[in-house]
Amino acid sequence: MSRKRLVLFVEGEGDQEAVPVLVKKVLTEINAWEYLTLDDNVFRVGGVMNLTGRNVEKWTNWLQAAAKRSNLGGVLLLLDGDAKKISTEQPQKKEMFCAANVARRLAAQAHTVGGGSVFSVACVFARQEYESWLMAGIDSLRGKRLSDGRLGICEEAPDLEHDTDLKPRDAKKWLGQQMDRGYKATTDQKPLTELVTLDSIRQTNPRSFRRFERAVQELSDALKTGEHVVTPQT
Q1: Which domains does the chain have, with CATH numbers?
Q2: DSSP, residue by residue, 3-23
Q3: Helix 99-110 × helix 56-67 angle, to 10°
Q4: How confident is the model at residue 91 (pLDDT cuts 50, 70, 90)?
Q5: Residues 87 and 52: beta-carbon distance below 8 Å
Q6: 225 to 37, 69, 73, 140, 183: CA distances (angstroms)
Q7: Band of the pLDDT at 169, cuts 50, 70, 90?
Q8: DSSP assignment, residue 157?
Q9: Residue 212: left (phi > 0), alpha (psi -120 to 50), or beta?
Q10: pLDDT for 17-49, tens place per residue?
């Protein structure tokens, strides 16, 4: 059986390196490699503001670009969910950001360019940031050295429930406080992702991470059966 191609859409430069590592962990756990392959070309599409409102055409353009990849089976969009407001199609008008609503809207728009009929699409937001999932997996990161030999998260890093000063959008800042040289996504996001374990993230039960894993499973099932899906459904 010919293996279908799964293409990743991410937000930033650090995500381009880190997200494939995390997706591979899930795909390996669910034994998906027999019928799919992960595309090496990770699309960096920017934040949610770059795909919504008057920029919605960029979203469908990115999907059409991915569709040119040979044997495309599915697209996974993973962005940070830390926006407060997003633009609308009406000039200078914004609306409150809701990850679930925006994900459904993007999924619905994917139908216009073949999503659900020619290839599968899943839209996921990490709340608040991708780094929030690394924080959730702190038990597997303490005292470990990164792939380049640097010490990553210090051994004394506190449990999240004991850090009373933690704010919802402080993930990058918090990680930086637990690393000797601070945290920089472009250099640290991938090696920390290499170290973190899925089980350690699951222990703190982040809702958005459950959604991420479910989305990968849905795409995997679709690529296996050939019955395309778009998720989340409206």
Answers
A1: 4-127+206-231 (3.40.50.2300), 131-201 (no CATH)
A2: PEEEEEEESSHHHHHHHHHHH
A3: 50
A4: low
A5: yes
A6: 15, 20, 11, 35, 41
A7: low
A8: P
A9: alpha
A10: 999 999 999 999 999 999 999 999 999 999 999
